[in-house]
Amino acid sequence: MAQGPSPPPPPPPPPTDGDKTQKTSDIIGTFRPTKLFKLSKPDTHVTSLDFDDEGLLLIAACSDSSLQLYSARDGTHQKQLLSQKYGCHLARFSHHSESLIYASTKVDDTLRYLSTHDNSYIRYFKGHSAAVTDLALSPRDDTFLSCSVDNTVRLWNLKSQYAQARLNLATPYLAAYDPSATVIAIASASTSSILLYDVRNYDKSPFATFDMRQYDPPPLQGGNNMPEWTKLEFSNDGKSLLVTTNHVHGHLLLDAFSGELKAHLPRPYQPTWGILRSAPSLSPSKSALGQGDTSFSPDGRYVTGSSGADRDAVVWDTQGRVSKEGERKVIRPMCSLPCDRGKGAVVLWNHKFNMMATADTEVILWLPDEHVGMKPL
Fold first, then answer.
1. Average pLDDT over residues 13-17
2. 85 Cβ partners below 8 Å, 6+ apart?
3. Fewer CB within 10 Å, N side or C side of the chain?
């Protein structure tokens, strides 16, 4: 029996947000300030920033002992959480968007686990006897690391008030998990070294030690023999390790497996101390606390950071041309991201969306603007 013509295929589904994916390389030079949030007082400084796992919320810890919560999706300020008695710094979301941990800056050095829903404490983590200099949450589970001036690194789990492990090290002021959550990197300022530990054998000796003295120039600050390191971060592909510094020679881009220096990433201008925050090793310090002024883009290729002298941000392409300047291998910034509304003392990429946040005495959200072009340096 003859059959009639087959019915036409159904129409394609309507486009979704997933179809609007943009390659970072196509838009990296077009990021511009889109939303600015002023703080309650002009002399209040943001000391840390963090996006939640979904990239929808942003938390800012401030020098006035407040935590400011923003909706990254809507570009709105959601609420203020006060920690007037204990102070706050290094606020980090847990894997639940309505809870976070942060370090105290007053009274004691306890870590506090806070519900942002009702501003109540879930748990306290006691043990450090001096200021906490870094917090790093595992990307895989509820364990996290804390570094302190008391020369210890402690491993915690959000479910328990007691530390699971303690490492006694000289000046272990910075730490980071690799993206697979199998490796912990700890930066020891006084020894100019980075120690790599297997998460499964954190009670054993480090399986690798990167000696940074050959790469890190002598400190600029007289009377202090420690390097000006302010942040330690793995790229999302796990291939690179970035040491953010305040030194004029720039940041240190390392091979995450061998520790070999890929290149220095110098700022385009001489760093200005009114913009940069002091490294954790410089204590006491007159400047506000910070967490470093660089951040890897989600694809791991680009580094965005403060210019060090003005309000613009700059971008380094880690796959760009490496030049030889004397004995140093250098990657110069590929472009500038103009900003006339605030400094970038703290810089952070949103790893879920094409968005960046910077902060000093204001919080600024950056988005790509299709109507502008790249601004070369």
1. 44
2. 65, 106, 107
3. N
Looking up tokens 């998460």 gives 199
Residues near 123 by beta carbon (within 8 Å), at least 6 away in sequence: 113, 158, 161
Alpha-carbon distance values, 221 to 94, 131, 195, 306 (Å): 36, 21, 25, 20
Amino acid residing at 314: V
| Residues in contact with 360: Cβ distance below 8 Å, sequence separation at least 6, in sequence order | 45, 46, 275, 342, 343, 344, 345, 346
Q: What is the pTM of this model?
A: 0.90
Sign for the pseudo-dihedral over CA of 281, 287, 289, 291: negative
Q: What is the pLDDT of residues 247-274, one digit of tens each?
A: 888 899 999 999 999 999 999 887 766 6
**Which pLDDT tens digit goes with each residue over 292-327?**
999 999 999 999 999 877 778 999 999 999 999 888
Tokens of 202: 């954190």
**Comparing C-alpha atoms, which of 184, 180, 188 is closest to residue 196?**
184
Total count of residues recorded for the chain: 377
The amino acid at residue 324 is K
* Whole-angstrom Cα Rg for the chain: 22
**pLDDT tens figures, 23-38:** 888 999 999 999 999 9
Please give the Cα distance from 174 to 286 (Å, whole number). 20
HEC string of the chain equals CCCCCCCCCCCCCCCCHHHHCCCHHHHHHHEEEEEEEECCCCCCCEEEEEECCCCCEEEEEECCCEEEEEECCCCEEEEEEECCCCCCEEEEECCCCCEEEEECCCCCCCEEEEECCCCEEEEEECCCCCCEEEEEECCCCCEEEEEECCCEEEEEECCCCCCCEEEECCCEEEEEECCCCCEEEEEECCCCEEEEEEHHHCCCCCCEEEECCCCCCCCCCCCCCCCCEEEEEECCCCCEEEEEECCCCCEEEEECCCCCEEEEECCCCCCCCCCCCCCCCCCCCCCCCCCCCEEECCCCCEEEEECCCCCCEEEEECCCCCEEECCEEECCCCEEECCCCCCCCEEEEECCCCEEEEECCEEEEEEECCCCCCECC
